[in-house]
Amino acid sequence: MEMECWVSMPKVELHAHLNGSVRNSTLLEFAKELGEKGIIVFSDVEHVVLKDDRSLTEVFKLFDLIHILTTDHATVTRITKEVVEDFAAENVVYLELRTTPKRNDSRGMTKRSYLEAVVEGLRRVDAVDIDFASTGVVLENKKKSCYMNNECDGISRKKIYVRLLLSIDRRETLEAAMETVKLALEMKDVGVVGIDLSGNPRVGEWTTFLPALKFAREQGLHVTLHCGEVPNQEEIHRMLDFLPERIGHACCLEEDAWRKLEMSKIPVEICLTSNIRTNTISSIDVHHFADLYNKKHPLVLCTDDSGVFSTSLSKEYAIAAAAFGIGKKDLFQLARNAVELSFAGEKVVRELKELFDLVGKSLA
Ligand code: 6MZ
């Protein structure tokens, strides 16, 4: 099927890391600037940024590099704006964007000021209309908005809903994680809806963060965990016992953990290209997506790090269609079902479903 059909379909993105979703061209532009200032050697960085196949270990080395390139408020604002506009351009109608608030004393950056820079990026989005605040603030032109330009009358614009998840990095201390959760609570009115636990799965113990995750949940924040990116069965079991509202990846589950996942019905954020590129799954035909999909387990297709893995949500749909033989109508239904898995709340879920139903009618 033509790529265009996956691009034009409305989609929901629930697992995208901000710094992993930066365009290569933007990263290279930053690298050039830092190279000219003598802070880094441009050619070394260029080689790493443009490399295509990476192990999981190499991916985390690349994130350290990306973080060097993106550490100041103006840069964080710019990448946020670009990432949202890129997702909107391929008709992602709801984006739950996650990022790790970072403190950087040398730049006068606190976790709070980092997050404020992200929110400023949302405010600067101008290529499309954006709804990013849970209180319902919509920044839009006076023009009517709709999800696809080509279906509208030329005056209308695309619209994207954006909500934020704050990530706790497994390298952090419990104290830093608590700071992130408290920040999330303070920033609920600019669309922060939950907490994610991510970072190098071979680093740290997830139990370190359990008090912060429990606190988040008690305070009404939604929680999603990266679970089973490496085969640590003890951790996988304990994570599933915690009953997070969603988990990311779920790649390395042995039989009893797999059964536990199926029984629990915890929705899974599936990142096909990421899993294949990092060799977490050996090839697409043995990917657990097929089993979950056939068993009607709640799941959603996601990009993870569209910049780092040179992918897009449309490509992920195209890959699923080709690898598992799923037709457009069924993948449209999968995208529509994913609306229910968002952390955005009833009103947004209702509005998104209406939008999907409107488009669905035109497909029928
Ligand atoms: C685990 C990942 C990840 O937060 O700086 N991250 N954590 N597994 C993955 N699979 C490949 N991909 C990204 O975005 C980058 C950060 O997201 C997490 C890592 O902590 C990475 O440093 P932010 O915007």
Q: Can you describe what's shown?
A:
The chain has 364 residues and is of the alpha/beta class. It has 15 helices and 10 strands. Helix 10 links the parallel strand 8 and strand 9. The longest helix is centred in the last third of the chain and has 18 residues. The site of N6-methyladenosine-5'-monophosphate (6MZ) has 18 residues, from helix 4 and strand 5.
Question: What is the strand and helix layout of this fold?
Answer:
Blueprint: H1 3-8, E1 11-17, H2 24-36, H3 42-50, H4 56-69, H5 73-89, E2 92-99, H6 111-124, E3 129-131, E4 138-139, E5 159-169, H7 174-186, E6 192-198, H8 210-218, E7 222-227, H9 233-241, E8 246-249, H10 255-264, E9 268-270, H11 272-277, H12 289-294, E10 299-301, H13 313-324, H14 328-338, H15 346-363
Parallel strand pairs: 1-2, 2-5, 3-5, 5-6, 6-7, 7-8, 8-9, 9-10
Antiparallel strand pairs: 3-4
The chain binds N6-methyladenosine-5'-monophosphate.
